[in-house]
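User: Some background: our group keeps a shared notebook of sequences we're curious about, and every so often someone picks one and asks for a predicted structure to add to the entry. Today it's my turn. The entry only has the sequence so far, pasted here. Could you supply the structure so I can complete it?
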Amino acid sequence: MAAEVGTARLGAVVALVAAVAVAAVVVLASVPGPGPQAQHAQQAAPGERGRSAPASAGARPSGTGTIALDWGDLDRTPARAIARGDYVVIQAWEHARLRALHRANPALRVLMYKDVSAVVRRPHESGVFATGLGYAEARRGGWLLTDERGRRLEWSDWPGLFPVDVGDRGYQDAWAANVLAELRRHPWDGVMLDDTLTGLSHPTIGGRVSVQIPTDAAMYRATSSFLARVGPRLRRAGHLAVPNVTVEWDTWRSTLRAWTRHVSGWENEYFVKWGLGREPRFGAADWRWKVRMAAWCARRRVPLLAVTYGSGRDRATQVYHRATWLLTWNGVTGAGIYVPQEPSASHRQPAANQPLGRPAGPDRVVAGGLHRRAYTRGTVVVNPTGRTRTTRVAGQTVRLAPRTARIVRQWPRGWGPKG
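Assistant: Of course. Here's the predicted structure to add to the notebook entry:
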C-alpha cells in the first residue's frame, strides 16, 4: 500500500520535473516495504553549525520537528512555523533558506537530506545530488552492485535507483568527501543519512542478487562499516550525523547498541502506523516496541526523530502520534514528526505539535492498559489496547476508543488562551 501511494505521488512530480526518487525503507514487524522519504533523491524545487548538544541552555525544546522534502513543502510551511520545532530535514538545494531558519530559531537543527545506499543518473537542476554521489562517479569507482554476470542492479520498487557497495572504503570516502563539501558550503547543522539498511530491503529488477552484498547479513556488515567510517568523520567536522535506520521489533536494540556510538542520533519512520494514508494505528506488541525504542534513546539522551506519515485531516492519528511520543520524551532531545501527505497541507499540523510544557513524571500504566504521563501544562493518555477504556484526568472523565489518545491541557492560573 505504501509503495502504491508513494509511486502515485512521485509520478506527478516526475512528469513535471523529470526527476528520479530515492526510497527510504523501514521494515515494521512482518510488513516490508519502502518508506516515502527516498522519493526525494532527485525532486526539483523552486559553514559548520553542527551541535551535538540538543539545545542551548536558554532554549525550550518542543520535541517537534519538520520533514519537508517534496516540491512546495517549504512554501506551504514558512520559516516561522518550522522554527517552532527543534529539527528540520530539507533537500540540499534548499540552502538559501538556512539563514532565515536559523534567524527564526538559533537552536533549530537543520539537516541536509542525503541517501546512502543508492545513486541516480541525474542531479537536481541546481547540479546537486540528493545522493552522496552520482551514477557516473559510482561507475568509475566500481561501486555499483552487479550480479554474477556483471549486470548492474536496479531497484524494482524504485526504478532508476542503482544500489551501491556501501561497504567499500573507496565509496565511503567519496560519499563523505562530497557531503562534507556541501555541508561546509552553507550553514548546515548536519545531515540525515537515508537508507541505512540492516538487510536487503529493496527487491531488484529481475530478482538479481549482487556478488558484493548477496545476503541480509552482508548488508548489515556493509552498513555497519559505512557508519563506523563516515559517522565519526562527519561529527569530527562539527556536523550532526542522523541516519534513518531500518529496524524491526527484534533487531532495534542490538542495532542501536552497536551503531549509536558512531552517530549523533537516529530517525525511524512509521512510528505509530504503517503507510501514508489512514492505515490502522499500531497497538499491542507493535506499539510497545516502538515506545521501548523511544524510551531507550530518551534515557541515553540520544536524539530520535520519530516519524509518522498520514493525512492532514486525520486528527486522531496526529494526536496518537504526539501523545505516544510524549510518553517517553526526556524534555531535551529528539522530536516526534508528523508528515501530512496532501500536497496543500502545512507540515506543522496543530494536533501533531501540541505544546505541553516539560515532563512532570514518568509514563505510568493504569487500569485497563492505558498509558498516561503528566506534563507541566497537561496530561497525555494513550490507549494502545483493542478495547475502549475510561479514566479520570484533571477531574474529567476521558473515554478512549481502541488505539486512540487524548491530550488534556491544564492551564496555570493567569496563563493560556484569551477570549
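Suggested note for the entry: The radius of gyration is 21 Å. The chain has two domains: 2-355, 356-419.
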